[in-house]
């Protein structure tokens, strides 16, 4: 199988566990691994110091998180890419899967129990709206 395995990360330990599962799956399938981070804010800040000017945004910070994880997961056997996607995590994963034609979305099982299971979670959102297969990785335990 070629194609894209998609995973979302947010800097948490459980998201990293899902990313590790996505790496293993993508490597086994001969697929590309695409790592994204969702962001909801449209905050932009301009910072000036002397003659230098920097524009910082929520999108930039999200992309840094995704870039770092993608770089850590890359190997000779695995091509990785990364990006930042506007929206809530579950919706952003679905939107990106549609955009890139992902074959599989990997999500963690965090918040799949108790009250959060009823109110919704990233995994529930993705499972109900995904345009492709969904793999739910066990991330609530090491």
From TrEMBL:
Q: Name one Pfam family in it.
A: Usp
Q: In what residue span(s) does the UspA domain sit?
A: 2-138
- The superkingdom listed in its UniProt entry is Bacteria
InterPro entries attached here?
Answer: Rossmann-like_a/b/a_fold, Universal_stress_UspA, USP_A, UspA
Q: Where is the signal peptide?
A: none
Q: Which family does it belong to?
A: Belongs to the universal stress protein A family.
Protein name listed in UniProt? UspA domain-containing protein
Organism of provenance: Arthrobacter gyeryongensis
- Taxonomic lineage from the root: Bacteria, Bacillati, Actinomycetota, Actinomycetes, Micrococcales
């Amino acid at each position: 199988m070629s194609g894209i395995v998609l995973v979302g990360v947010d800097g948490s330990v459980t998201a990293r566990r899902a990313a590790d599962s996505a790496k293993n799956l993508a490597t086994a399938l001969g697929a590309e691994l695409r790592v994204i981070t969702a962001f909801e804010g449209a905050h932009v800040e301009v910072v000036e110091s002397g003659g230098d000017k920097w524009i910082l945004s929520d999108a930039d910070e999200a992309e840094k998180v995704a870039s770092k994880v993608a770089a850590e997961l890359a190997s000779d056997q695995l091509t990785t890419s990364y990006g930042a996607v506007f929206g809530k995590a579950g919706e952003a994963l679905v939107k990106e899967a549609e955009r890139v034609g992902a074959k599989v979305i990997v999500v963690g099982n965090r918040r799949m129990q108790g009250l959060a299971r009823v109110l919704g979670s990233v995994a529930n959102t993705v499972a109900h709206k995904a345009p492709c297969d969904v793999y739910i990785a066990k991330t609530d335990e090491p």
